[in-house]
């Protein structure tokens, strides 16, 4: 149940296809897939106890991840819980 959720992780991923089987590798890159953003936005707007968003981006240089932090903040600005934070 979403009311029990307190933390969500956001990470970049790479879509791939192998012999007709489509899959996503959770590569912690800076390119977050559109489907991932849709999930994050839905969860953030329906999880009243959400306290933290973890951006998984290790192995990337700081200048590459700063825009991702800004994008997370922008997308969650209207979240009923996180949008109230400074």
- In which range does the helix fraction lie? 25-40%
For the secondary structure, the number of strands is 4
Tally the helices: 2
Spatially, the strands of the biggest sheet line up as 1-4
Structural class label: alpha+beta
Shape category: globular
Low-pLDDT sequence parts: none
The proportion of strand residues reads 15-25%
Provide the succession of SSEs: EEEHEH
Largest beta-sheet characterization: 2 strands, parallel
Instruction: From the alpha carbons, calculate the radius of gyration and give it in angstroms.
Output: 14 Å
N-end to C-end Cα span: 27 Å
Mean pLDDT: 90
Give an overview in words.
The longest helix is centred in the last third of the chain and has 14 residues, at 62-75. The radius of gyration is 14 Å and the shape is globular. It has helices at residues 34-46, 62-75, and strands at 7-11, 14-18, 21-25, 52-56. The protein is built from two helices and four strands; from the N terminus they run βββαβα. It has a two-stranded parallel sheet. It is α+β, with helices and mostly antiparallel strands and 86 residues long. Helices cover 31% and strands 23% of the residues.
């Amino acid at each position: 149940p979403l009311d029990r959720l307190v933390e969500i992780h956001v990470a970049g991923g790479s879509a791939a296809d192998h012999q007709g089987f489509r899959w996503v590798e959770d590569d912690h890159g800076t390119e977050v897939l559109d489907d991932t953003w849709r999930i994050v936005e839905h969860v953030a707007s329906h999880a009243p106890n959400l306290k933290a968003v973890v951006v998984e981006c290790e192995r990337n240089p700081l200048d590459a991840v700063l825009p991702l932090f800004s994008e997370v903040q922008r997308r969650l600005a209207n979240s009923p819980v996180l949008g109230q934070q400074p």
